[in-house]
């Protein structure tokens, strides 16, 4: 079975603030890491490969430094990796990202199953998986919490719905997004790191893709635009109290009574 | 759309340093005295607006503009489980009416499922102009292809300018598929929505884990899609009278084919959700041992409150994920929330900062939670809470005592 996992490199920390006076972003710490939600998708792929055999490939879109997450996927057990990187892909919103990835998928040969993490820690949208499925014409199921069965032409999964747990059968080829905690992700292996340190990672750009219409990629291919950014509002209507623990307890009890909560 | 142009002749070492530092996405690079903009650029244009004047310029592209007048209506997808409508749908209908009023557009609701015809009439108590009902056996359980086909049919027929979808399990799977089908934009988890006179929907949401707010627009594509979580928009009023009409939509059954089969549905044991609680006590790492939760539970009992927690307590096994408030947990909007021993990182406050009354107890006067609290109590929860509990007991005894005295 040929499985493809979508992975993304995200900022190591979300510590970003807007200076309320200048409106400029202040970045704190610039380390990058693999999107933690993707680790669950990778682990799902590896376990499925252990069960039915086949290959696990990874794909990512990002600047050249994103090669690091593909290398990391190799140290966990991925067989092959592709990075889509090009200045022309920059500034992409979800639609353009999903389109670019779907174009990249077409360069990866046979794919029976695409696995995605639920969302990223930088974008938080949880949209790229379903949008890729649409572009590739694949059925998709989101919120997968368990893999029940893997057969030749279909698989059975358990999904977490608001009031129910549902078990559904989905035909290959298909795309799944998996929930956090579906499996315990494995750690990178030093042995695999040595074994894969010189393994090729294919990097492709705009000119390698089938659709050569520039307008569908990057910023131009993004229907949404960030109009402005600003710091979150701070509540100005407030009281600060101090005193001994006992005084504060009394004061709070009195206030709660005043507000009719007791 | 457009592109950034760097006027390299204006560069000096100090200008280069300022530009490299000003970019929040690390997209501006110093390449041997020249500036290069790499693929990390998100075109926020901060380098143009706030960088050294005139060094980086934004040049507009000539873009074909769409005819926005062809798209009319603010539509809401009605989220439901076997016909029981999720309250987020009514919150969004309330918001849709506000947005539509600004541009004089009709308000639509789209209800997709099986045997839902009777339940559709409930929607007419919330002020929609028209409810479109797709009632087919193939739509009995949520499966992505038939549901997307129904939404596609609705959008092609009615051409709504905006479509709002609740950020529920179904919504988060359906909305992006519909957005990609129409090659249009979708902003997830919006916290504020506004409408421009030109029918552009202003979509505001937290970004970078809640540290900043991003204002997003979808100026040249239709329909404009946005998802919103439950309890973010205000609860709407249900009117006694019903108004508007129900239209039973027809769609070719061949369009409802699917490669997915739902085999079994098991109901979960439903616990009261913190999202619906009127009073919540939220605890974090200020609680040092699991035993100390006893006083919190006691206080909760006295106030008729539910207990919510932050991630560390869940990871320690003292609570579970359904009780988590925050960006990766639930959004709550109770009448009262007492926040105990939580520093108030934005990932947490983003899930509760619209609560009506926020009381925060923390012994660090600089804790960020005090930025959102209405009542900021600088104190030790191990002192304040026991005293609060004993005061409440005392007041309860007083009342009982006086009642007994009256009887006698």
Model description:
The complex is a heterodimer of chains A (262) and B (408). Chain A is α/β, with parallel strands linked by helices and 262 residues long. Chain A is 26% helix and 30% strand. Chain A is built from 6 helices and 15 strands. In chain A, the strands form 3 sheets. Chain A has a 9-stranded mixed sheet, with helices on both faces. Chain A has a two-stranded antiparallel sheet with strand order 2-5. A two-stranded antiparallel sheet of chain A has the order 3-4. In chain A, helix 3 (94-105) packs across helix 4 (128-136). Chain A is globular and about 70 Å long. Chain B is of the alpha/beta class. In chain B, 26% of the residues lie in helices and 25% in strands. Chain B has 9 helices and 22 strands. Chain B has helices at residues 13-22, 46-49, 87-103, 144-158, 169-181, 293-303, 311-315, 346-349, 381-407, and strands spanning 2-6, 28-31, 34-37, 56-60, 74-77, 80-81, 84-85, 107-113, 130-135, 162-166, 186-187, 192-195, 201-207, 212-217, 224-228, 245-248, 260-267, 279-283, 306-309, 336-340, 357-362, 375-378. Chain B has a 7-stranded parallel sheet, sandwiched between helices. In chain B, helix 6 packs parallel to helix 9 (381-407). The model of chain B has no long low-confidence stretch (mean pLDDT 91). At the A-B interface, strand 3, helix 3, helix 4, strand 9 and strand 11 of A face helix 4, helix 5, strand 11, strand 13 and strand 14 of B.
